[in-house]
Amino acid sequence: MSNLKYLTGFGNEFASEDPRCPGALPEGQNNPQVCPYGLYAEQLSGSAFTCSRQTNKRSWLYRILPSVCHKPFASMEQGYLTHNWDEVDPEPNQLRWMPFIVPKSSEKKVDFVMGLNTLCGAGDVRSRNGIAVHIYTCNISMTDKCFYNSDGDFLIVPQLGKLLITTEFGKMMVEPNEICVIQQGMCFKVDVFGETRGYILEVFGAHFELPDLGPIGANGLANPRDFLVPVACYEDYKAPSGYTLVNKYQGKLFAAQQGFSPFNVVAWHGNYTPYKYNLKNFMVINCVAFDHADPSIFTVVTAKSTRPGVAIADFVIFPPRWGVANHTFRPPYYHRNCMSEFMGLIKGHYEAKEQGFQPGGGSLHSIMTPHGPDADCFEKASTADLQPERVAEGTMAFMFESSFSMAVTKWGLETCNRLDKNYQKCWEPLKSHFNPNWKSSTK
Ligand SMILES: O=C(O)Cc1cc(O)ccc1O
Ligand SMILES: [Fe+2]
């Protein structure tokens, strides 16, 4: 399945026809009286009709039956997926989680939807402004079952196991060190190939965009041509015992039955699509003289709030790169931030915490919660011989940075049972080096 084809570009006006039905896209209009091949035309709107051209998002899908052909929705069991931010008291401490446990399929069969566990979040799906961080852990594929999210966009970061994601727009294979975005309303199902784990950044009310480059110029960071969009691929399939359509609506899961596969789109065009991106393509910019640049230089995509320069959430990575800064403490600085910082690790280790922060785990440094390199990292970096050196080789840490003050869920604090109770001990050995008689010669 890795021979899948993709279109390239970020937010382009794409067009795609399943090669089995040439000419399936109507020419010169969106709504012919009768569509080619007897298809139904359906628009998926990802922005208000009236948004500026720059932000207007919609796609036209030409499908065997329209999405509306389903039985009524009824609420269903939703495991540890929640948007209740008041389950437990606020938790301002530095938090770190050991790798989240993936259930063994011999003990419990869990698919992608039932394996969604909400770790933290804030804001409101109804007023369309907020964020949730979910950890997915699953071990079986979704069969005759699909999912769409009425509440927001999913940015999915696989950490263990690849995902074959079938969408209305076509198929994407997404492996660890790649990410994908499934935007609000897009129907998809996930096939897995064993134990599977990853992170999801959900934003309510905004779509991800590429950050402006300002003085960097026309190129750099995540380049638009490296974003991959699936191609139309329909199935004309009647599920023997019905197809289950799962919908996340206002934070609750609902299920409806329908007789046929929703992946029945023969052709589509538009600028509102799912997409994927390989993090190895990120063009890294870093300091080449002295001091430590803020991690915003590593922003892959951003979901902007309405306040200029302030994101609902940024997706930031810490890719392999050269560290060359002279007379500089090179690791991340000690820090208190008016933003929330959730971090995850896809592979390797993170430079500020060589120990304890493990792939498949996470950390949360909430608004104004102090954090920074552990004692070991501080001592090493303060005495290091500052040669040019490779930083983060073979690793990939990332951060969801949000302007929201996030609540941690009961699952995050208790049920998952992965909180590292000793996290704060990593700073305990930090000692005072203060010398009131200090002269540069005594350094
Ligand atoms: O807290 C962290 O590790 C993330 C981070 C990295 C960095 O290089 C500078 C600031 C920052 O918050
Ligand atoms: Fe930080």
From TrEMBL:
Pathway(s) per entry: Amino-acid degradation; L-phenylalanine degradation; acetoacetate and fumarate from L-phenylalanine: step 4/6
Annotated Homogentisate 1,2-dioxygenase N-terminal domain residues: 5-279
Domain of life of the organism encoding this protein: Eukaryota
Classification via Pfam families: HgmA_C, HgmA_N
MF GO annotations: homogentisate 1,2-dioxygenase activity; metal ion binding
Cofactors (names): Fe cation
Keyword Oxidoreductase applies: yes
Any one of the GO BP annotations: L-tyrosine catabolic process
Quaternary organization: Homohexamer arranged as a dimer of trimers.
The protein's name: Homogentisate 1,2-dioxygenase
Organism: Erpetoichthys calabaricus (Rope fish)
